[in-house]
Design a protein that fits this description.
By secondary structure, the protein is mainly beta. Helices cover 4% and strands 53% of the residues.
Length: 883
């Protein structure tokens, strides 16, 4: 940036002592009007023309200016940003778009440069306007002017300047304070019209009003006024007039002058913003500033480690009559909000007083405190006094401004604010409920196109709540939609609106204690009424329950602000809940059981939540929002199913009938299904037990069958009943055949007797081994097959050294009773006196099948047998090669 060639913000600026006529010239930097007019024409078709104006920006002497806009619109809006030079003779324009709920940051140095205005010294300071079209006023914002080298900051607040509808006051009233040696107080005044205008500027100090010279403003001109220079014109000792008031009265058909001010100390970094209240008479004489640091803040405070603070309450009496001001400090404790009320301050006519809440006040407080809220109550009529509250750190480098507001004003009950986080910067939303009743607050925050909702924000009576945006982000707690604030988000916007007609006020503070910089945002919804209560929904929309089971249903209110953005609030504990069926009951005590449905009996129930809330409408006659309470309802379906807890026994074999007991709940008069191949006959049933017989077909599919019960048209979840089919033979331990295989029996002219005592051969000469088997089912645990069956065997894969040793004759359809085992004898030889030769042996495979109820099952078992005389050694080897 090249060196400045004209006076800076904190340098002396000459004041015109007589009216000066300045011609208005079209700027050579203005963009072609055709495209601009086309855009505005398109906007006009979408809503009424809107304009917000900012009195000052500066790019001089190390200052930078950031225009931050936040849109509360549910849709993207085209906007036009107009930069007006300090003389008003030159204008730059830029068409942009701001997305729904977007925080749009416009660095004015870059914008001026991009529009080729950097070469014009006239653009080093001036004013800004933003125009758009909308049926509501969804765009809010402010300009933050900073000098990071000197740790100075102040805000240029917006004025609403819609055609025919403006909040620009006819008389601008401001307060300066802390004007000590080495400090400067400047007031920046901008003409928002395309016509020349004059204004009277007067100062009040030491209880006297002093009318200054008439000042002339060219169209769109911005002037910087020095309080010290103005005081000098009145022969005041500028070193000793530390506080006072400034009044700017414009002379025009309608108000067009807007202003902002700053007191700064280039050495210490002290800087504070001077506010000029907008038009509109306050509803009460009580003003409030929430979230003010006082003393040395506690460890959990957003201001922890930021220093030790002294709040200054500066009050100016605008009236010609004396009045008093009472200051009340509200502070949080574990038992709720407590307060102390200070002795009244007497204000003479036109007097200004700076009350420092120093040790004389702080000694009455239970330090440390995280923060406090400060109430200022004037004895005069509403609007007869103005006030500022700023809390100053002990080393004077950090000033936390806290703009006072009227909590009863409907416009104070919402916020549309930007936020920012970095290694040294915090953002905190302070909300204060000044009523004797709890106050609900609808809240959402936007970052990186993610919307995050708080659906249960409720302030206790007289509570001030701090919502730390960093803590909210870092908690990563999902909202009702499962969204979290992106973990690395550093910028975004936040939106809040009170849902109850109670006195409430809030502000967002963005500050860096390390940089000695603090910025205050309190822009709010400014048009008519919020939409209020839009709808009620119940979640989940349907639920399946079992007897004695519970399901938490939640009721969520949809609530619309004045721009159409929808918020959500959990009304579960506040709703009235009903069930239309004896299948379910639903809790209604307003505590932990609200919305909790309990399943009583099988059936279906409609669970309904009903809630009444305000959907206000605007009264043009009363110029106020009129309450309109509406009851809305929403429902969900609860299906209650009978429940099976156990089944015994849990298995049965094909071809058998099994007596089964089912235990559970909701079983009265229930029918039972066990799937294909099982016929169920219920012999008795109670609410908790069913006695039934399962007739299992011989051809039923083996494995798990799902067993369910049905009562009142509702079917339970299933339990498994395992159908056993004969699958394999396994060795079975008996005294005759330990481990299933008996001892090797060389026999010469003897008898072969199996383990069942059956004689298999007489006058036998050879070798024998007795075997015992058990038939098991197909399960991994190989359960014994519990049903009678007939067994058949077959032989194959013969290998022999003597053709006389062939395959055995297979047995067929051998009946095996329930719980009986199978006996077998594997013997080879001849009728005595013939015996096995020295190398007479053979081998083969043995396979089986069983028949149950006329259905044949081929078993998986293959037994490999090798027996005979192996070079003089008798052997009879039997192995199950395939289980």
């Amino acid at each position: 940036m090249r060196p400045a060639t004209v006076s800076s913000l904190l340098a002396l600026t000459a004041l015109a002592s007589v009216p000066v006529s300045v011609p208005y010239y079209a700027s050579p930097f203005t963009k072609p009007s055709q495209a601009h007019n086309t855009q505005m024409a398109q906007q006009t078709t979408q809503g009424a023309p809107r304009e917000i104006d900012f009195p000052y920006y500066s790019l001089r002497d190390g200052y930078s200016s950031l225009l931050q806009l936040v849109s509360d619109s549910p849709v993207s809006l085209p906007i036009e940003v107009t930069i007006r030079s300090s003389s008003g003779r030159n204008i730059l324009k830029k068409d942009m778009n701001i997305s729904s709920q977007e925080k749009l940051m416009i660095e004015l140095q870059s914008l001026v440069a991009s529009l080729n205005g950097e070469s014009e010294d006239d653009f080093q300071e001036g004013s800004i306007s933003v125009s758009y079209a909308s049926d509501t006023r969804p765009i809010m914002g402010q300009i933050t002017v900073t000098n990071p080298y000197l740790n100075l900051i102040f805000e240029s607040r917006l004025a609403i300047n819609d055609p025919g509808d403006s909040n620009i006051p006819a008389v601008l009233e401001g307060i300066w304070w802390g004007l000590k040696p080495g400090r400067q107080t400047k007031v920046m005044v901008a003409n928002t019209s395309n016509s020349s205008v004059t204004a009277d500027v007067s100062l009040t100090f030491r209880g006297q009003r002093h009318l200054g010279a008439l000042i002339s403003f060219a169209p769109y001109e911005t002037k910087v006024l020095s309080i010290r220079e103005l005081l000098a014109k009145f022969n005041a000792d500028t070193e000793f007039v530390s506080e006072g008031g400034i009044t700017i009265t414009g002379h025009s058909p309608s108000p067009v002058l807007i202003a902002s001010g700053m007191t700064a100390d280039l050495n210490s970094g002290f800087s504070t913003t001077m506010h000029f209240p907008p038009a509109g008479t306050p509803q009460t004489s009580t003003l409030l500033a929430p979230g003010v640091p006082i003393g040395t803040p506690s460890a959990e405070s957003p201001f922890a480690l930021a220093g030790t603070f002294t709040p200054h309450v500066v009050v100016r009496n605008l009236s010609s009559s004396p009045q008093s001001t009472t200051v009340t400090v509200e502070y949080p404790t574990e038992s709720g909000t407590q307060l102390i009320t200070l002795d009244p301050i007497n204000l003479a006519a036109y007097a200004t007083k700076d009350l420092a809440l120093d040790s004389t006040v702080q000694d009455r407080l239970p330090f440390p405190l995280p923060y406090c809220s400060i109430q200022v109550q004037n004895s005069g009529s509403p609007g007869s006094a103005v006030a500022e509250i700023s809390s100053v750190a002990q080393n004077q480098d950090l000033v936390v401004d806290s703009k006072l507001g009227d909590p009863t004003d409907r416009l104070s009950g919402s916020g549309i604010n930007p936020w920012h986080l970095d290694d040294q910067t915090e953002s905190v939303l302070f909300l204060a409920n000044e009523s004797d009743a709890p106050a609900r607050v609808a809240f959402q925050i936007q970052a990186q196109r993610t919307i995050y909702h708080l659906t249960d924000l409720k302030l206790n009576p007289h509570e001030t709540r701090a919502i730390d945006i960093r803590k909210l982000r870092d908690a990563q707690k999902p909202d009702m939609f499962g969204n979290t604030i992106p973990a690395k988000a550093t910028d975004g916007s936040l939106f809040w609106v009170k849902m109850d007609r109670v006195p409430m006020i809030g502000r967002t503070l963005v500050f860096s204690s390390h940089k000695g910089i603090s910025s205050n945002f309190d822009c709010s919804c400014t048009l008519h009424c919020p939409q209020g209560y839009l709808a009620l929904s119940v979640a989940p929309s349907s639920a399946t329950m079992t007897i004695n089971g519970t399901q938490q249903f939640t009721a969520t209110e949809s609530w619309g602000d004045c721009s159409g953005i929808v918020y959500y609030y959990d009304q579960t504990t506040s709703s009235t809940w009903t069930s239309n069926s004896s299948a379910c009951t639903v809790g209604n005590n307003g505590l932990g059981s609200s919305g909790i449905a309990t399943a009583i009996e099988p059936g279906s129930a409609t669970i309904t939540a009903s809630y009444t809330d305000d959907a206000p409408h605007w009264s043009a006659a009363l110029q106020d929002c009129i309450d309109r309470y509406i009851q809305r309802s929403a429902s969900a379906t609860a299906t209650v199913k009978p429940r099976i807890d156990s089944i015994s026994p849990a298995l049965g074999a094909v071809g058998s009938t099994v007596s089964v007991t089912l235990n559970g709940n909701g079983l009265s008069a229930a029918t039972v299904s066990a799937g294909s191949g099982i016929t169920v006959t219920v012999s008795s049933s109670t609410n908790t037990q069913i006695q039934a017989s399962f007739a299992i077909s011989a051809s039923a599919t083996g494995g798990n069958h799902a067993v369910t019960v049905t009562a009142n048209g509702q079917t339970s979840g299933s339990v498994n009943f395992y159908v056993q089919i004969p699958a394999k033979l396994v060795f079975f331990n008996t005294a005759c055949a330990p481990g299933g295989q008996g001892q090797l029996q060389p026999i010469t002219n003897g008898t072969v007797v199996d383990c069942g005592g059956v004689t298999r051969a007489t006058n036998f000469c050879g070798v024998n081994r007795n075997l015992t088997y058990q038939l098991v089912d197909q399960s991994v645990s190989r359960n014994p097959f519990p049903v009678a069956y007939s067994l058949s065997e077959s032989f194959s894969n013969l290998s022999t050294t003597n053709p006389a040793l062939g395959l055995p004759t297979p047995s067929q359809n051998i009946p095996i009773g329930v719980n009986q085992y199978v006996t077998d004898a594997q013997f080879v030889g001849f009728t005595y006196p013939k015996c096995l030769g020295s190398n007479d042996h053979h081998s083969y495979n043995q396979n089986f099948s069983v028949s149950v109820g006329g259905v044949t099952y081929n078993l998986s078992t293959t037994v490999s047998i090798s027996n005979g005389n192996f070079n003089g050694t008798l052997r009879d080897d039997v192995t199950i090669s395939i289980p």
